Amino acid sequence: MKRTRRLAGRVLFHALTSILIAALACLAAALPAWAAGADEMGVDDVVVLETSLGTMTIRLFPNEAPRTVENFKRLVQEGFYDGLPFYRVVAGHVIQAGDGGENDQPTVPLEAGGHPHVEGAVGLARDVDPDSGSTEIYICLADRPHLDGKYAVFGQLADGYDVLRRIGAVEVTEQWVGDEGNIAFHEPKEPLVIRRAWLRQSEEPGEEPGEAPVAAAGEQP
Fold it and tell me: Most exposed of 118, 134, 177, 194 (fewest Cβ within 10 Å)?
């Protein structure tokens, strides 16, 4: 009797193990692309932002937002973001970086795919025209589902959430813009600079850039 019970127990154990393995395999297959690890993506689909408060790593979504990703990678390779600040910090919402849109860079059509605005989501800011996104990027400090489908989420933080939260917690000077004065454009009291930005396949630059310019409010989510 005892031997029969042990045998039955082993059969049950192996059956449960097989079910668990199958369930985990199905779960892994169902994970969206943005949840995959950065090491599973091409090295040129990962961008590193070295800021004055630490380093953040972004994995890009070239399949979902190809033109937005290519535009961002081009700007990174040209050194566009080197020395520019995160000039907008709104606690519980987003941090935003760029030059306020005051440039002659081309715009890209809206590529609002299936990636949600969760903490660490990286999007392309724009004006009223959906196809006016160009250089202004933002990173979500929290889930912002009301932005889904309205802006292009073209990347997700793979590392540096502590840095993101540190930036989101800095002291700011409150500023409200827009026709009704209801858009928060709070500016950090101390400059928060992107010292360098580069593709992960590139060598890490050496020299420190000069003082970053102060950007004007432009495109925004």
Answer: 177
